[in-house]
Amino acid sequence: MKKQLLNVCVAFAATLFLAGGALAQHEAPIRAENCPAVTAATAVPYVDGVADEANWSGELAVTEMFNAAGYDGNESDLSGYVKVCWDNANLYFFADITDDVAINWDGATGNNYEQDNCEVFLDQDTTITNADGAYIGDENQLRYNRGYDTYAGNAARNEASFDDFIQVDGAGSWQVEAVIPWLTFMPAGTLPEDVVDLLKVNGGAIGFDVAFADNDTELGANRDIQMAWDADEEGAGATEDNGWKDTRVFGVLTLTGVPYSSSNSTTVNGFEIFPNPANNVVNFRNVEGVSSIEIINLVGQTVKVVDVTADNVTVNVADLAAGNYFARLNSIKGSFVEKVIIK
Questions:
Q1: pLDDT digits 0-9 by tens, 247-274
Q2: What would the DSSP string read from start to end of 194-234?
Q3: Which residues lie below 8 Å from residue 319, measured CB to CB, with a gap of 6+?
Q4: I want to staple 153 with a disulfide (CB 3.0 to 4.6 A). Which of 62, 124, 143, 310 is the partner?
């Protein structure tokens, strides 16, 4: 896993909307490879331990074993994947981990990193400053321990928090879904309005990696299996087990799409419409109680009707001519109309 950080590249095609002064790039860029697309969230994911919204990335398999002392050769022993998506405020993270023996940390016994856990490694960009990959202040390491409902990794920065997460523990597997504010691993003193400029420093690419640890013995014992998303090594002494201090083992995650933002959305009676203006699709958020959405042209003709069966709905408008329209949301509270512009 080089500081080619998590080999996930997606051209940063996003037009970002947070304002902020440009900040100087302080590291030299490195290469990235094997880059799957990570899309922007057009609706904020509901943190419930199930990544069932449409905007999540595909499954990024965590299969690169770098500690196999206790591996029995079966995927049930340890395997899994992660999904991610993002907006201007947060990176959203989901992990689904198969592990047939649950060792739930109690907050006290043994080292938390030796018990069943999921670690996330983040860097503001995809560059290495120090020859040994040492952290310089724009990286961080997160840890979520199985069965422990308190965040157990490094401290967040800039008065932000890693505490917005949930775990679901089942027979033979466990899941964790987390909201990771960008500010939590940005350099100390970073302000919210600086975030987008920092993400642009290296074309939207950030350093990223994930590691799963498995302890099949007993609480307090040592982990006997570890797997990473990108377990390539680069440079003398750059081993995956040193991700907590060596950024050379990271991979790359690059962001694409236009995320939800208050500056490109409109609201009618609590229902959010995004983006507006729109090109190919219009997203309707928080439309609980709405039965249908109509798109109406300026002469009063209904040109599109969509039945609503979920709280967040995407309407394809690519087949409509550019111009001004109205969206009518028919709900149990009545009908509400908002102007929609199609470019």
A1: 888 888 878 766 655 556 677 777 888 8
A2: GHHHHHHTTTTEEEEEEEEEE--S-TTS---EEEES-----
A3: none
A4: 143
pLDDT for the residue 328? 94
Phi, psi of 28, rounded to the nearest 5 degrees: -90, 135
Residue entry with tokens 């201007």: 88
Q: Tokens 């080089």 map to which residue?
A: 2
Best CA proximity match to 39, nearest among 19, 59, 58: 58
Domains and CATH numbers, the chain: 4-256 (2.60.40.1190), 265-342 (2.60.40.3080)
DSSP 177: E
Contact criterion met (CB below 8 Å) for 97 and 117 = no
Q: Kindly report the pTM of this predicted structure.
A: 0.70
Pairing between strand 302-307 and 290-296?
antiparallel
* Residue in this structure with the two tokens 């799957």, named with its chain if needed: 36
Strand 251-256 relative to strand 38-39, pairing: parallel
Residue 241 CA to residue 63 CA, distance in Å, equals 15
| Alpha carbon distance 204, 18 (integer Å) | 14
pLDDT at 274: 82
Q: What is the pLDDT of residue 317?
A: 92
Flag residues of the chain having pLDDT under 50: 1-35
| pLDDT given for residue 273 in this prediction | 87
How far is the first Cα of the chain from the last one, in angstroms, to the nearest whole number? Answer: 42
The pLDDT score that the predictor gives to residue 41 is: 67
For tokens 């057009």, what's the residue?
A: 42
Give the per-residue pLDDT at 81. 96
Separation of alpha carbons 96 and 135, rounded Å? 28
Distances in whole angstroms, Cα of residue 326 to Cα of each of 81, 165, 294, 300: 42, 38, 8, 9
**Is residue 25 a contact partner of residue 151, using CB atoms and an 8 Å limit?**
no
**DSSP-derived secondary structure letter, 193:** G
Closest by CA position to 7, among listed 279, 227, 210 = 210
